[in-house]
Design goal:
Helix content of chain B: 25-40%
Shape of chain A: elongated
Number of domains of chain A: 6
Radius of gyration of chain A: 41 Å
Oligomer: heterodimer
Strand order of the largest sheet of chain A: 30-34-35-41-40-39-38
Largest sheet of chain A: 7 strands, mixed
CATH class of the largest domain in chain B: Alpha Beta
Structural class of chain A: alpha+beta
Number of strands of chain B: 10
Distance between the termini of chain B: 80 Å
Radius of gyration of chain B: 41 Å
Strand content of chain A: 25-35%
CATH topology of the largest domain in chain A: BirA Bifunctional Protein, domain 2
Largest sheet of chain B: 8 strands, mixed
Number of helices of chain A: 20
CATH superfamily of the largest domain in chain B: Bira Bifunctional Protein, Domain 2
Chain lengths: 802, 355
């Protein structure tokens, strides 16, 4: 909503400065977006100084001037003026400026092979005089300190631009704004121009609102103005509209716009001679076609509120008029409409037709239903003043009677909500100034809300009115109390933080990417999950919710590879989606690492990343977040985007159906389809919602610490075993042989090839043996040795390597 | 002179002169080997008369100890000399690069979420979360924004079905609804998370982060709201003084509603929070609307309280001097390394919010 301070002063007697008024607006809740002059095309022209002049290399009469335009950097301008000379102060027009004389828009152009940035202007080009001989010469005294400043003063009035919240329909008119300011003590609201008007004769065009379901019009007021002479608006009216950026059209249209902006009362003027017989306000029929004033044809749906005559649709009520009954300069007789349309109906219609107009914006938020007559009189008297003619009596058809909202307001509620006190007397004054009808009772104010405030329905609305007019500065700070109701984080939330920082501490950079992604990339990681489409995506490559944490990460990995980074470690922790209903989502941590270990390193041998790098990061992380190594089990069932032979799934304790993590090398197909150029790519993901919390807290879990000082022994074994036999099982078998004595088992070699049968491998293990009761004798150790060998050989078919 | 003294003097002299390990080992075996001189003396002792035996034994042991100590000292000296000699040839250039390591980083948005959680934890708030996909009721209707309300236009919404029943939440406020429907008052929560709106330009991203705050109890009023936010802003920006302005505004789910501005000034192109006479809008808040309380089965005649919503990304930008919102989500390796935080920097009250 835009207006000038002068326009405001039509309604408000105030001694406040413009700046104080702007502050006041902010304080009562009318947010000032800006307070500045409308930019003018003359703002482009600035004072400039010619630094140096050279002859144009290809034209005798042209010069190339180096010009200081006050921006720190000089520009080159080609100029043909004979008076262009060093140190001359003149007027410069940059590319983009429109030259007043010929309305030409300047652009950067080559003049005989030399690029010219803008132009130096003569008086005639600026329409200052007929003088076209040479460029302007400005006096040193007046202009030498104004280089870069505007040459033309901008005399346009400053315009206030308010961002009006949807509850404040009344402030979409200047008078409503003035009323708020007056209530807040910024001045006195002027009495209304009760605009008395001499009416003669009846409004002879019959008007009728049909009684039907979904009728969107509850009141239709009109008057007829006969014998007008439509013309351009007088200067004062044009200026008012121009100042806020509205284009004057004709007196009749301008007056209706003016009344709308002034009083928030939308009106419509029909050329009465174009109306066929009578006006009927009814619901539209499906398929009716109507040509609107925006020169577009609309095909209507059922039950839209239309203003019609015998021939057909004249206008969409409260939204836009039609071309068939539009006023023109030749129009002699007009029918002026001032009506009330239901916000819901307006909103529905405009959404279906994707139509937004100033009238729609206002009716949608709720117009004062009691302003029908006021609007008719205000507009008719202005039209009569400007265009002459005779005004008929008003005709107002009503379908429903408007009821004002009644609220009985307990005065103690104000303090209970805001924490500050306002005297009852002051409350009454504020409400009265805002247009409430107030009746005092004991501890209660019986209120009738003003008809222009449909947003005021209940007590809390009244609290807000008093509080905002009194000012939020009244609210006193209450220091926060340190009372905790629940622990700050629950188990899953703690896991989130632990995981995030644990992975980051292993050299990964945390990324946050969109929750939506490109369905084509998502397909690579979607597996059996449902695709969740966005109906109105922001672009076609962000058209689905991500099914996997990798769907976006892989795209950004690619971008970083293309930036010539090779060894990249990134991760993200966030939601992935399995469906389009609330809750069909899962939090996943996904990590990607590309390239080589120890690339270009003087001390370490460089090598490709492999599955065991991924396994180290993920296992260490799981232990760090509180899992025990004996709770973790691993198998090889992984999704298709993992390398089928070099990836694993991790399970927590006995739950074998729902892995808590995957790790491995990426499937070569993924690299190929994404056209990733990297030496190696390892990926892993952790499904944190699936990780079960420990039953007990750490303080209950810690057992007594026991250690043994008896002699420790180590024994090495090498078994030749089936190639496919899982080493982890081998380790389990050995550790089962004697859980008390066997303290640790290390795998120090795995070998296939020469001297080993083709379908076998050799696994070398180091076993640490220690008793907590005694020093073990050679006999003890030998017995255990044999037991280990026999157990392994019996249970696995392995043979001790000789 | 007894044999013992002879041996002793002879070998003390010898030991003085030698400096090679092999010579010492030679002497060691000459003295203490199977047929070594000292060993032989011990053997001889058996044949001595018992009255002499005691004295000889004493002498012999003393000599043995003296020689042994000397030998051992000699050996140590030689070893140390050898080590020193060896070290002379073992110099490396320690200015060569260390073995590789790489530094991981926490995203600024995550860091700021942790900072916010730490601050609110101090005054007893707990963290609640809700789904990113919401139904239209929780996102709008329950929050006093019915279907035909123009306030819905303030949110450009991503929809997941043609009937507009399911959507990506446009704010974190639906977490209020879920929390209150699932529990009983009092409520004292913050709800950080991802939020979505279908506009995208320099200052808007289709996804961004908000933190919702909600405190419902008996007798909670706007003074508590102001106090809570004043505390939060001071703690978050880690400044002593803060200029804060409450300005009336409108949100369908709170009434009275306010927008909060903080004072700032520009110094060398950087925003300095807390000083100066410029205002920066940083959040929206208000008293939870009675209609909302009714919708979530909380009796508005018994309970009342406040709610607020803060843009997390914007807070991160202001605090850490980041000027491009879209860069947050573009995963540029250089950007993440530059603006990210060390994983050991866990914001807490005792260690401080930030380094």
């Amino acid at each position: 909503m835009k207006f000038t301070i002068n326009w405001l002063k039509d309604h408000l007697d105030t001694k406040l400065t413009d700046e104080k008024i702007v502050d006041k607006l902010t304080n009562v809740g009318l947010e000032v977006e800006s307070f500045q002059r409308q930019t003018s095309e003359f703002d482009q022209f600035v004072v400039a100084r010619i630094i140096s002049v050279e002859k144009h290399p290809n034209a005798d009469r042209l010069k190339v001037c180096e010009v200081d335009i006050g921006k720190g950097e000089n520009v080159k301008v080609v100029c043909g003026a004979p008076n262009a000379r060093q140190n001359l102060l003149t007027v410069y027009a940059p590319p983009g400026a429109i030259i007043p004389k010929n309305q030409m828009k300047l652009s950067i152009s080559k003049i005989r092979g030399v690029t010219s940035y803008g132009m130096l202007c003569s008086e005639s080009e600026l329409k200052l005089s007929k003088e076209s001989e040479g460029i302007m010469e400005l006096s040193k005294n007046n202009y030498s300190n104004k280089i870069g400043k505007n040459y033309f003063a901008n005399n346009a009035p400053k315009v206030v631009d308010l961002s009006i919240t949807p509850n404040r329909a009344d402030c979409l008119g200047v008078r409503g704004i003035a009323r708020d300011l007056a209530a807040a003590g910024a001045g006195k609201l002027k009495k209304k121009n009760s605009g008395k008007i001499k009416c003669s004769g009846q409004q002879v065009i019959k008007t009728k609102i049909t009684k039907e379901k979904h009728q969107g019009c509850s009141a239709f007021g009109s008057c007829l103005i006969k014998g007008v002479k439509n013309k351009e608006s007088p200067q004062w009216l044009k200026d008012k509209l121009l100042a806020i950026g509205q284009k004057p059209i004709s007196a009749i249209v301008d007056v209706t716009n003016y009344v709308m902006l002034d009083l928030n009362r939308p009106l419509h003027a029909y050329d009465a001679d174009k109306i066929d017989t009578e006006i009927i306000v009814r619901n539209s029929k499906k398929g009716e076609i109507f040509e609107a004033l925006d020169n577009k044809k609309y095909t209507l749906e059922e039950n839209m509120c239309v203003i019609t005559d015998k021939t057909g649709v004249l206008g969409l009520g409260g939204i836009i008029g039609g071309t068939r009954s539009a006023t023109e300069f030749e129009t002699k007789n007009i029918l002026l409409e001032s009506a009330y349309f239901e916000p819901k109906s307006i909103r529905k219609t405009s959404r279906v037709l994707s139509l937004d107009t100033d009238a729609k914006h206002r009716f949608e938020r709720g117009i004062d239903p009691n302003s029908i007559l006021e609007g008719l009189i205000a507009a008719a008297s202005l039209i009569q003043k400007i265009c002459g003619g005779t005004v008929s009596k008003n005709n107002i058809q009503r379908n429903e009677k408007f009821k004002q909202n009644r609220i009985s307001f307990p005065t103690k509620m104000l303090k209970s909500i805001t924490g500050f006190k306002v005297l009852e007397k002051e409350m009454v004054k504020i409400l009265d100034n805002l247009g409430f009808h107030v009746k005092k009772k004991k501890n209660i104010l019986d209120l009738k809300a003003p008809s222009w405030r449909p947003d005021i329905e209940q007590e809390i609305d009244v609290v807000e009115e008093i509080a905002r007019i009194k000012g939020y500065n009244e609210i006193k700070i209450e220091l926060p109390e340190k009372i905790r109701i629940k622990p700050t984080l629950n188990y899953q939330q703690k896991l989130f933080h632990f995981l995030q920082r644990s992975i980051a501490s292993k050299g990964y950079l945390e990324a946050i990417t969109w929750s939506f992604t490109d369905s084509k990339v998502n397909d690579l990681f979607k597996e059996e999950k449902k695709e969740v489409e966005i109906v109105n995506p922001i672009s076609s490559d962000l058209n689905v919710l991500r099914s996997s944490i990798f769907s976006n990460l892989i795209i950004y990995l690619k971008k970083n590879l293309e930036r010539d980074f090779k060894d990249i470690s990134i991760f993200e922790i966030g939601p992935t989606f399995t469906g389009s209903k609330p809750g069909e989502q899962e939090i996943v941590l996904g990590g990607l690492k590309s390239g080589l270990v120890s690339r270009l390193n003087w001390i370490e041998k460089e090598r490709k990343l492999d599955v065991f790098d991924a396994k180290r990061d993920i296992v260490q992380t799981l232990l760090e977040i509180g899992l025990e190594s004996n709770q973790i089990s691993i198998d090889t069932k992984t999704p298709t985007y993992y390398h089928p032979g070099k990836s694993g799934a991790i399970y927590q304790s006995s739950n074998k159906s729902n892995p808590i993590a995957y790790f491995g090398e990426a499937h070569p197909n993924v690299l190929q389809k994404m056209e990733l150029k990297t030496d190696a790519l390892i990926i892993f993901e952790i499904f944190l919602d699936r990780i079960k919390s420990q039953k007990n807290k750490l303080k209950d879990l810690k057992t007594m610490f026991q250690y043994s000082d008896f002699q420790k022994s180590e024994r090495d074994f090498a078994f030749v075993i089936d190639k496919n036999f899982k080493v982890k099982e081998l380790i389990n078998i050995i550790s089962q042989v004697d859980k008390d004595l066997i303290k640790a088992i290390k795998v120090f070699d795995v070998y296939e090839g020469e001297n080993i049968e083709k379908d076998k491998k050799s696994v070398a293990l180091n076993v640490t043996i220690q008793s907590s009761q005694k020093s073990l004798t050679d006999d003890d150790l030998n017995r255990l040795n044999k037991l280990i060998i026999s157990s392994v050989e019996n249970k696995t078919g392995a043979k001790l390597r000789s | 002179m007894s044999d013992i003294i002879k041996i002793k003097e002879e070998y003390l002299n010898k030991l003085q002169e030698i400096s090679e390990l092999k010579d010492i080992n030679q002497i060691k075996s000459e003295l203490f080997g199977k047929n070594g001189k000292i060993s032989n003396e011990f053997k001889k002792m058996g044949s001595l008369p018992s009255e002499d035996r005691k004295k000889v034994s004493l002498d012999l042991n003393a000599t043995k100890n003296e020689l042994q100590n000397l030998i051992e000292k000699k050996i140590k000296d030689i070893e140390i000399n050898e080590i020193n000699l060896k070290l002379k040839n073992e110099k490396v250039d320690v200015t060569l690069p260390e073995r590789t390591f790489s530094r991981g980083k926490i995203h600024p948005v995550s860091q700021v979420i942790d900072e916010i959680s730490s601050i609110f934890s101090e005054i007893g708030f707990n963290v609640e979360e809700g789904p990113d996909v919401e139904n239209e009721y929780n996102n709008f209707t329950a929050l006093n924004t019915p279907e035909n309300h123009p306030a819905r236009d303030m949110h450009d919404t991503f929809y997941l079905d043609k009937n507009k029943k399911f959507l990506l939440r446009t704010h974190t406020s639906p977490v209020q609804v879920r929390t209150m429907l699932q529990g009983k008052p009092p409520f004292k929560i913050i709800a950080p998370g991802r939020t979505y709106r279908s506009d995208s330009d320099q200052t808007h991203a289709p996804m961004f982060h908000q933190v919702e705050g909600l405190h419902i109890d008996k007798n909670i009023n706007m003074g508590h709201l102001k106090g809570c936010l004043n505390y939060f802003i001071k703690e978050f920006f880690e400044v002593e003084k803060i200029k804060m302005r409450f300005r009336p505004s409108h949100f369908p789910f709170t009434e009275p509603s306010a927008e909060v501005d903080i004072g700032y000034e520009l110094k060398n192109g950087k925003i300095i929070i807390g000083e100066g006479d410029k205002w920066l809008e940083i959040l929206g808040c208000g008293m939870v609307h009675p209609n909302v309380l009714k919708n979530v089965k909380v009796d508005p005649t018994k309970y009342q309280g406040y709610a607020f919503g803060i843009g997390i990304d914007r807070l991160a930008m202001l605090k850490y001097g980041i000027n491009d919102l879209r860069a947050f989500f573009e995963t540029d390796y250089r950007w993440l390394s530059h603006f990210g935080f060390d994983p050991l920097d866990v914001p807490s009250s005792y260690r401080g919010l930030s380094r």
